[in-house]
Structure formats: C-alpha cells, structure tokens
Specification:
Blueprint: E1 5-10, E2 15-20, E3 25-28, E4 40-45, E5 55-60, E6 65-70, E7 76-80, H1 82-89, E8 99-107, E9 110-115, E10 120-126, E11 133-141, E12 151-159, E13 162-171, E14 177-189, E15 192-197, E16 204-208, E17 213-217, E18 227-232, E19 235-240, E20 245-248, H2 269-272, H3 302-310, H4 314-321, H5 325-330, H6 336-342, E21 351-354, E22 362-366, E23 373-377, E24 386-391, E25 394-398, E26 403-407, E27 412-415, H7 421-427, E28 430-433, E29 443-447, E30 451-456, E31 461-466, E32 481-483, E33 486-490, E34 496-502, E35 505-510, E36 523-529, E37 532-538, E38 543-549, E39 555-558, E40 566-570, E41 573-577, E42 587-594, E43 597-602, E44 607-610, E45 616-617, E46 624-626, E47 630-632
Parallel strand pairs: 16-18, 40-42
Antiparallel strand pairs: 1-2, 2-3, 4-5, 5-6, 6-7, 8-9, 9-10, 10-11, 12-13, 13-14, 14-15, 16-17, 18-19, 19-20, 20-46, 21-22, 21-47, 22-23, 24-25, 25-26, 26-27, 28-29, 29-30, 30-31, 32-33, 33-34, 34-35, 36-37, 37-38, 38-39, 40-41, 42-43, 42-46, 43-44, 44-45
Amino acid sequence: MDGYLSLKENTTLNQLVIWKPESSKVINLPPLNLKPKQIIVAGALLSPPGNPGSMVMLFEEYLRYIICYSSDDKQWTKRWIGKEIADIGHVKDDTEDIISQQCITYCDGKLYASTDAEGYLMVIEENRFNKNLKLRPLNCKLPTPFSRCQNISRHLLDFCGQLCWVEVSWGGVNAEDIIDIDVLKLELSGNIKKWVKVKSPEDGAIFLSNNYAFSCPVNEPEVEGGHIYLFQRKRFYKVNFTDKSLSASLPLQNLSEWGNSPFLAMRDLIRLCNQQGKPEYPISKLEDSNEARVNNFGDLPSDILGFIAKKLYGVDYHNFRLVCHKFRLVAPCIKWSEALLKLQSTSFSPWLVFRKGNSCATHYFMDPHSCSICLIKIPEFFLHGQVRYSKDGWLLICSRTVMFFYHPFTNNRIELPEGVGARVQNRCLGYGLSSSPSSEDSVLVGHTFDFIYYFSRREGQWIQYYFPDLDGFKPNHNSPIYFDGAFYFLGRDGKVAVFRRDDDQVSWKILKELESPCESYCSNYLLECGGNLVSVFVVEQMVHIYKLNFTEPMTWEKVKSLENHALFVSPSSCFSVIPKLSDMENKVYFRKLYGKDIVYYCLSTDKFYTCGKKEVVADFHNTTEFLYSTWIEPR
C-alpha cells in the first residue's frame, strides 16, 4: 500500500519489518513470538504506516489465527478464527479449511478474503464498539474454474475500485507458457451477486506476483492500461486481457530459480501526481499543421480505380474495398469461392487469424508472405467463443455453453450436439479432426488428462473413453494429428501415444520404445508433411525437425530440409503446404509477431526472420502472440 511492503526479516526471531523500497524507509515491528509449527502465509497493510490507527494484519495457517498490529496499541493481538472459517466455508470440522493466501485484498474500504476449500467470500471488519475483528460471510463464491490446465494461479484484488478475480492458466512443455487468462469482476444487484468479464479500462493495470496481486492507475508511460504484468521463471510477461495478446521479456540473469525471487511493489502514487491527480511527467502534444498534404486517390476516375482493383487479390482486394464508399463501388464484394478460383495462379497461403483490441466483432487475417491484413466481421454467435482448432478452412469455436464449426469464408456453420459437449469444451487440452468437418465420415477427438472424447458425425453423438492418467502419458496443450487411420499425440516429454477406434474396438497405446529425439526444448508440435509423420521441436534459438521411421524399432530421423514444403505450427493447428511462391519454401511459420511482422524459421540458414522486413530475430523473446490465434487454410 502506497509503496510499502511487509517483510519477514528473521524466521528464528519471528521479526517483521515494513519497508518502502522507493525511499529505503524501514519500520521495525515487535517480535511475533509464534508457537512451533505456526506459519505466516499472508499479510495485509490496511493503511500506510504513520496514519492514525494504521494496522498490519497477518494470517497464520497452522492454528488459523489472525494476528494484528495497530499503531495505536503498539503490540500484537491474536484471534482464533477456525470455527468462523468452517461456518463460512460450510465444512463440519474446524480444522479442514483456511483462508486462501492468494485471495486477500483491500477494496473500497473493506478487507475481502475467501476460504481455501470452496472459495466462499467474506469481509473481515472491525467492530466499531469493542474493536474486535469479525468475519462476515457474503454468501457468494469465487468464480467456478474454467481452466483446462492443472497449473493455475488465482488472485483476488481491487481493480479500479472493483473487486476482481484473475485466473492464469499455465501449460506447455515446462508449464511455463500462459495458456489462458481471465479477469472477472463481482457485480452486486440487490441480493444478487454474479461474476462478469471485465471490459478493458485503459486507465488501470494489474500486477501479479506469486502470492499477492495489486492494481494501480496508469501514471507512467512505461505501463499500459488494460494489461496484466506478471513474473514467472525469470521472465516478465505482459498480457492484454481484452484480446489476450502476450509478450515476454528476456530472462533476467543472476536470479535463483526458486529461492529469493523478485517481488512486485507499487510506487507511492501520491508522489507521481500533482494536486489535480494528473501525472507529473511531461506530455508532448501534437500541434496542428497545415503543411502536410495527402494525395487523394479518391479523385481518380472510376475506370482507373476499377482497373487497379482487378489487379488485386485476397487481402489486398479487401483492404482496397475498406478505403471508402467509392472504392467499394468499383470493387464489388466477391464470394470467397470465386476468389479462390481466381487465385489458382497466385499465392494464397495459409493465414494467421487473431482478434486484436477491444472489438470482439472483428478478426484479423494476416498473410504470412506480405504481412498484409484483412479485417473480417464475424457473426454475433461467434462473439463469446474462442477459436480452439482449425482444419480445411473451418474453425472450431468453443464457449462455456456451445461448440460448433464455423467457416469464415462461406459463413457456413456446423452445430455439434450437446451431451458431454459442455465438459469437452471446458476441459480439453487440444482437438484433432480426421477430415473436413463437412464430410460425413469426419471424426473429432479431444483429450484431457484422463479422457479421450470422440465424436463421429455419422453417429451424431459424443463418446468418452476413460484412461486413468492416460497410462502415464504427459499430454501437451497442442493438437493431435490424424495419420494412417489413427490419432497421434505428442506429449510434453516428447513421447508419442496413439488412439485408434475400429468399429467398436478402441485402443490407447504409448509408443514406449520410441524415445524423444530432443532432450531440451520449450515447445513441440506434430503434423503430417509429404506423407510422413513429422515432429517439430523449438529450442531457444533453433528449430529441430524429425520424421518418424515406422520400421521396427521405430526411430525419429533428422530432417535437414523441407524441400518445397512450408510448415505452419501453433497449439491449435499444425499442417504443411506446398506454397506457390518459392521464397516461402523450406520454412517454419509461427503465430508470433515481432513488431507487426510474422516470425518464421529458415532451415537453410538456421535463423529466425520476420516476414515483411526480413529482419533477423534472435529468439522468441520480445515477440507477441495472441493466445487464441491459429492458422487457417483458405478453402
């Protein structure tokens, strides 16, 4: 609070200090004199030190005490809360529940907390008559987890004067990749309390640490509003929680992996603002100038504009139509099927699809060759869903309640039946299709940590198969690939598993004799290329590609060249194509952006580049990716 931190200085003497990093001011507190096994797991500073009645509140886990220090009393007072927590959390035994250390926050003059077992909310307040603390239940629970990950960090905090909930899902090879992030706020309407998604306010930012979180107004140019800043495994991450774009910093050196990790502290906001509450740093303003002149291409004759439009294809044609009404008159809207026939002799490579900014109704389609962008408005039913998979021009859209396929180029939609479908979209790590979802013989497969979900369009229903712990397989957050009549899965450890269903015969097999071809890597993918099953392993500064030799004993063989193929990889879609432009061959395209350009890896030079400016990129640090972006094949 106001730049102060409460720190434990000596575990033997149970000594606490309050420290202000910005000014190096330290306030020593009396010894705690804890009993054996007592552990302080969280604390709250209810008002800045020096203010009348300022208080430090600590939460002890083993015996379930609240321990307080008031500047008026100059001593620690302890209060047992085990019975009250049990009553609020609806548990029978007062030893079964505690206060969650990530869910304690001061908001709008009240101290909020929750039980650890079921997430029941409460307010911790002081009785104004006898100054005793009491725990008042709110008869409301924290949001139901929506994550499909096992490693999740959750925080309760004050964000712009509202009680908010942040849930970060971690996954990937080393559980270091952010898979998803949600920010919800508690809305109160009479006796009705509900959690709703936060719309991005540009004047506030959220900061997450291991055991606590806070927010602050944006008073400095280095901090962007509507973003979440967090530290994990020696890296800082910045996430826009509206369009879920993510960027990561270079690893911080000279830091221990698990020991004294860095903490986040909020600066004294009073010193950063003037009396009107406005930032004190200088703000430069752009002056109006009459000297700049722009050529108005709209004044060109319509026949010339029409001639120009006929020479444009794909993204360029659509961008041309977006300029003004006159341009749309000379360049009529065309069907994608007609555009595809027109583009038989030109480049029509896969596109990167993502949502950017505050608009949920518009998706960006980026051409990896020219990095040009086409904006496509999507139907209303798409607005509350996320893209989870892509194949043959179709997007698999999932939300909390529905699941369907959508073809953005034809506006066709294929509904998926209910049943176990709600559990599928909430829990699956990845999906795979045997063929286009418009085919009568298509099969959709999704996987979790224990289940394989199977949907056959011909049968028209979901079937779930239970494999406890997947027989030891370590699933990754990527898509399985359908190859030679079976679905192949690539695990976090590089192992391969096969799911096969022939009529009523179902099998799940881990290829235990097939060792991972790569020992250390940050991500991996599986796809089909030129009739071969191919794996892609991404190291910090290199990409390794292997093809599977099915001759017993099965082995991975190193691929030195893709020849005339190009690979497009992401957690939600992986495939290969033979591009019509030769300068796209022998490359691996990723869903990461460096500035405004897509990043690819060239096997000829063993280096990363940007598509547009052809700049060399050392690695994936300081790149941006959209968490629900995917590659799509225009068909």
